[in-house]
Amino acid sequence: MRKKIPLLRLPYTKNERSYISRGLQEILNSGFLTMSKKVTHFEELFAKFIGTKFAVAVNSGTSALEIPLRALGVKGKSIIIPTNTFMATPLAALHAGAKVVFADISSETLSIDPKEIEKRITNNTVGVIPVHIGGIISPQWREIEKICKSNNLFILEDAAHAHGSEINNKKAGTLGIAASFSFYPTKILNTGEGGMITTNDKSLYKKFITLRDHGKENPKKNIHTDLGYNWRMAEITALFGIQQVKKVNKILYERKKQADLYNKILINTPNLKLQEVPKQLKSSYYKYIVFVNKSIRDKIKTKMLKNFGITLPGEVYNTLCHSQPVLKKNKNLLIKKGDQSFKNAKKISSEQLCLPLYPGLKDVEIKYVAHCLKKLLNDFA
Ligand SMILES: Cc1ncc(COP(=O)(O)O)c(C=O)c1O
After folding, report:
1. CA-to-CA distance for 165 and 246, rounded, in angstroms?
2. 63 lines ligand 1 (CB under 6 A)
3. For residues 351 and 377, is the Cβ–Cβ distance under 8 A?
4. Which atom of ligand 1 is nearest to the CA of 63?
5. Distance from the CA of 131 to the center of ligand 1, in angstroms?
6. CB of residue 317 inside a 6 A radius of ligand 1
7. β-sheet with 288-291: strand ranges across
8. Most CB atoms within 10 A, among 14, 289, 323, 355?
């Protein structure tokens, strides 16, 4: 029987709703709507979950990238970024005053290829922003680290997809000088809008909290020492964040279970490649990514909806950053170092499909999605 599988569901249980209602009353009674107890509590819980000394709550994942970049002083320098990411990654670098050097990815890991980093370094490159695509940390992380260390480049993790992802038992968010998380509604933990920066570096942490608050070192005094901005988080947002982070292990368990079920049904399907998650990794399963021949990818997407009522979530990513119109119009923002064909990223981008995976998606729905995909692949064969 035809089912309707939407892009996303955000189920809140009765208990969760009453927890949020109670928290809202507390906020109203406190007289503080922003940057107070809830924000501090959310930061403490998040730092504990990731395993860093510090976490700084901000108003988006994009600002959680821009703040560290500003703190690291990237103005006038260049940053290496994989072209296969959301535009927030290069936009944050550009707004922090850096130029962007795009790099290709590895088609196996979906992450920046370590050799690409070496090839793209210019005389003023100061850092790299690896992106843990779909929740998968690059299994080549040691190589990435080694190359960055020997070239004196910082690593800022874009962990927008990777709350709870791990490599060799180390969590995303602990792997570079700092990391950025997003709480956009589709993300593993969601607060509507919001972001978090994690770091173990005390002096950077101090810069982050200054920059977040219009450049004031002391929030109580109207003295501005840095070129900051309003990147603060509201108390209501933090309340949602606390509710989410308290159940993060449950969320991650459910996502993994859904991915395992897809794997079980889809393994050995002709004309379908599954994304491998090597043993030393734990994925957050922000996305469940599969690959089909590029000649049928868009047709499958259309037919999944038209024939079976299944809306497939967006790919990561179907339009590569280097080809975005805004960057074609503003060529001076980029430094084009090395081969500009980005072959692996293009291949991944044209062959991938992401299957629905979100809280509350039932086994019967996953089976339905997987069987509909198999049927279409068979029809197209
Ligand atoms: C890879 C990546 N980086 C950064 C961001 C930016 O996060 P936000 O939308 O919270 O600003 C996103 C969010 O979609 C993302 O997917």
Report:
1. 16
2. no
3. no
4. 11
5. 10
6. no
7. 273-274, 288-291, 352-355
8. 289
Last residue of a domain, one of 214, 246, 278: 246
Walk along the chain (381 residues) in steps of 10 and give the mean pLDDT of each run. Answer: 94 97 98 98 99 99 99 98 98 98 98 98 98 98 98 99 98 99 98 99 98 97 97 98 98 98 98 98 98 98 98 98 97 97 98 98 98 98 91
**Does ligand 1 lie within 6 Å of residue 62's CB atom?**
yes
Residue 203 lies in a domain: yes
Q: Residue 109: what pLDDT?
A: 97
pLDDT (0 to 100) of residue 207: 98
Q: Is 182 in the pocket of ligand 1 (CB under 6 A)?
A: yes
The last residue of a domain, from among 227, 246, 265: 246
CATH of the domain at 134: 3.40.640.10
Strand spans (E) along 48-176 = 54-58, 78-82, 99-103, 125-128, 154-158, 166-167, 170-171
Structure tokens that stand for 234 in this block? 């509201």
pLDDT of residue 183: 98
The pTM of this model reads 0.98
The answer, yes or no, to whether any atom of ligand 1 lies below 6 A from the CB of 66, is no
